[in-house]
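If you are new to this repository, start here. Below is one unmodified record pulled from the training split, so you can see the exact layout before writing a loader.
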Amino acid sequence: MSSTNAQLSAVRKDRPKTAQKRENKEAVNTDTLHALNNSAKLLHKEYAQLKMESSKRFEEMQYVMKQVKWACLV
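And here is the target side for that same chain:
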């Protein structure tokens, strides 16, 4: 067992610093996390509303364009 630990230590020492495992010592504030989550939900909701509204307006514009086209042909 100790030889395995020695081998692992040797391998870890040979690895460059960038390849070594990093430990995240900073904790995320739960209030910040909740605020970020709420902001993301609100952004998604507003995006969906904007997408629906713009789709509706384009359909209305297409309808008006068809009316104009038919009026010009008469």
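Two things worth knowing about this chain: The chain is about 75% helix and 0% strand. Helices lie at 2-14, 30-73.
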